[in-house]
Amino acid sequence: MSDLLFVDDNPDILEANRSYFEDQGFHATACISGEAAALLLQTHSFDCIVLDVMMPGMDGYEVCKFIREKTSTPVIFLSCLDQPDDKVRGLMLGGDAYMVKPYDLRELHAQVVACVRRKEKEAAPAPDFFIDRERRIVRLHEHSAILSKKEMALLCLLLSRPDKTLSKESLCAALWPGEAADENRLQSLVRNLRRKTDFACSHIGRITSVYGQGYRLDAGEGEGD
């Protein structure tokens, strides 16, 4: 039985989520505030955390930062904020998914199941391949690559949305916040990341250019810039 933590300042949403997921066979814990969640996380671990963004006091983004300092537990954001910048911010902070309220509980269930499966897969022994996000290392067998901070940030963004096209504008905004979008700089970063991680594309996936849109991480052969 997977242990889930739901954090939301709306008690009705908390109860609806808790009740639904317990009916689906999960063990669900609810916290009414970010502060309560942070306190609980000092002594308890979970398989997935479903986190509201807009809460008084310690908001969801702050809770996610707290979580990422301690663990890689999957985090799913729930929020009324529906702009691309809001979603990108959540993913850049370490979120694994971002859903906009109101949402379908069946879709949330699917996201939770996917996150729990990924966590279980990552926990399984895999000595031949790993990504060390803190040290910015990608390793497969005897091959390894050290990435720059921007290259690792880009890789994490793409890994967070596999098989989804991320626009050039959203990637530039996430990688260079507050600066004008520079597609040439992004193109150069993508080229360098491809070159460094080509040896591991069978495990990571391949970065594909989507003409006129942006970039996608998938298992197919990537086209040139």
Automatic annotation (TrEMBL):
A single GO BP: regulation of DNA-templated transcription
Gene3D superfamilies reported in the protein's UniProt record: 3.40.50.2300, 6.10.250.690, Winged helix-like DNA-binding domain superfamily/Winged helix DNA-binding domain
Residues covered by the OmpR/PhoB-type domain: 118-219
Binding region for DNA: 118-219
UniProt-listed InterPro entries: CheY-like_superfamily (IPR011006), OmpR/PhoB-type_DNA-bd (IPR001867), Sig_transdc_resp-reg_C-effctor (IPR016032), Sig_transdc_resp-reg_receiver (IPR001789), WalR-like (IPR039420), WH-like_DNA-bd_sf (IPR036388)
Domain of life: Bacteria
Sites of 4-aspartylphosphate modification: D52
All copies of domain Response regulatory, residue ranges: 3-116
Keywords: DNA-binding, Phosphoprotein, Transcription, Transcription regulation, Two-component regulatory system
GO molecular function terms listed in the Swiss-Prot or TrEMBL record: phosphorelay response regulator activity; transcription cis-regulatory region binding
Entry GO terms, CC: cytosol; protein-DNA complex
CDD domains associated with the record: REC_OmpR, trans_reg_C
Known role: May play the central regulatory role in sporulation. It may be an element of the effector pathway responsible for the activation of sporulation genes in response to nutritional stress. Spo0A may act in concert with spo0H (a sigma factor) to control the expression of some genes that are critical to the sporulation process.
PANTHER family: REGULATOR OF RPOS, TWO-COMPONENT RESPONSE REGULATOR ORR33
Protein name as catalogued: Stage 0 sporulation protein A homolog
